[in-house]
Amino acid sequence: MRLYLDDLRVTPEGFDLRAYTAEEAISMLQWGNITFISLDHDLNAEEYLDINDTGTGYDVACWIEQAAAEGRLDRIGRAVHSMNPSGALRIRQAMISADRYWDRR
Predict the structure, then answer these.
(1) In degrees rounded to 5, what are phi and psi of residue 52?
(2) Cα torsion for 20, 41, 95, 81, to the nearest 10°?
């Protein structure tokens, strides 16, 4: 299944599931049947005033990276559609790291 993570944009055609928060996306990834994810970085923009809020696409990418390292998640395809350049870069770096773990299997 293909998962789209974004709090504002309309879900593009071709996606089976939609998550609005990092927590929702991680929960769906734990099902084990996600084959592709498209990630936005900035989620729930009004909550960014809370410096303790960690609900971003980067958090999802870090979860994917950790799950790949621990062998809990099979390789999934991905895209980053975030307009936040530094956030998108961080997501890509985490996913490249996940690829390295998957390649070692």
Answers:
(1) -90, -5
(2) 90
Nearest-angstrom CA–CA distance, 60 and 62: 5
Beta bridge partners, 5, equal 19, 39
Q: Which residues pair with 77 in a beta bridge?
A: 36
Residue with tokens 């990092």: 22
3 close to 16: Cβ distance less than 8 angstroms: yes
Tokens 């099902």 map to which residue? 31
d(CA 16, CA 57): 18
CA distances from residue 79 to 49, 51, 53 in whole angstroms, order as listed: 27, 26, 23
Closest CA to 60 of 45, 51, 34, 48: 34
The pLDDT tens digits of the residues spanning 37-72 come to 999 999 975 555 554 465 999 999 999 999 999 999
Greatest CA separation found in the chain?
Answer: 41
Nearest 10 degrees: CA dihedral of 72, 18, 37, 70?
-10
What average pLDDT does this structure show over 6-17? 95
